[in-house]
Design goal:
Order of helices and strands: EEEEEEHEHEEEEEHEEEHEHEHEE
Strand content: 25-35%
Distance between the termini: 5 Å
Shape: globular
Strand order of the largest sheet: 8-7-6-3-2-1-19
Largest sheet: 7 strands, mixed
Mean pLDDT: 95
Low-confidence stretches: none
Structural class: alpha/beta
Length: 245
């Protein structure tokens, strides 16, 4: 299994079971979302290889996960999985093979590999999806928002945890995990590697970002992992870098 960071925000590709699974692709130079209240520019130009996929997964219907201008660059016959709201939006932009994913559902990916959908923690428990990829005894858990000890108890042990690690709050509601919470979750899951996603939320411009409270301290994650007694390594991947399992 190979888990590849595609951009400087939160797009990934997972090469597993002989298939390429594209997760939350951002394939343009600019990303406008939240009804135009937030805009972000990529630090690196999109690469043609980022469009290569056998399966598309959108973890949420929000505009920074399901981005219509990016989806316009992908084949509309590409098999896709998302939430119910995500599938409605996929259908509206022309995708013909979108399927609604349910927490606990397992999708066979070939060669004994699988993808299991899990529910995130509050406030995304009914509006987003976490993803657990498994192949040859190796497991990677991709959670774009937040998770909980209860959820991890259902997921079980993982080798790689891809999750948020820069705290973001909106009107006091936690939208992503800070370094301390991410480290606790990594320790609970027995992860060997933690790769942060949703990087640098303060890089966006507009009204919505101005309302966010962001706690971003990249060096804190490794310190918190060590404080939790975890042997996991924090890896802040650059676009194009990957974790091999």
């Amino acid at each position: 299994m190979r888990v590849v960071r595609l951009d400087d925000y939160q797009s990934w590709r997972v090469d597993v079971g002989g298939r390429r699974v594209l997760v939350d692709p951002w394939l343009t130079t600019e990303l406008t979302y939240a009804f135009g209240l937030a805009t972000r520019r990529r630090a690196f130009s999109p690469a043609e290889a980022e469009r290569e996929a056998d399966l598309l997964v959108l973890t949420a219907h929000f505009g920074d996960h399901l981005h219509p201008p990016s989806l316009a660059l992908l084949p509309k016959v590409l098999p896709a999985w998302s939430t119910a709201a995500g599938c409605r939006r996929l259908g509206a932009v022309g995708f013909t093979r979108a399927q609604v994913a349910s927490p606990g559902q397992v999708v066979a990916l070939g060669s004994g590999a699988s993808l299991t959908f899990v529910s995130p923690g509050f406030p995304f428990s009914t509006s987003a999806l976490g993803l657990v990829f498994e192949e040859a005894g190796k497991r990677a858990y991709l959670e774009a928002h937040v998770t909980t000890a209860q959820r991890l108890g259902q997921v079980g042990r993982v080798d790689l945890l891809v999750t948020t690690a820069e705290g973001v709050r909106l009107f006091g509601v936690q939208l992503s995990m800070d370094a301390r919470r991410a480290a606790r979750m990594a320790a609970a899951a027995g992860a060997r590697v933690v790769a942060p996603t949703g990087l640098h939320p303060h890089a966006a411009k507009g009204l919505l970002p101005s309302l966010l409270s962001v706690r971003s301290e990249p060096d804190a994650l490794q310190r918190e992992l060590e404080r939790c007694g975890s042997r996991a390594q924090a890896r802040w991947l650059r676009p194009g870098e990957a974790v091999e399992l």
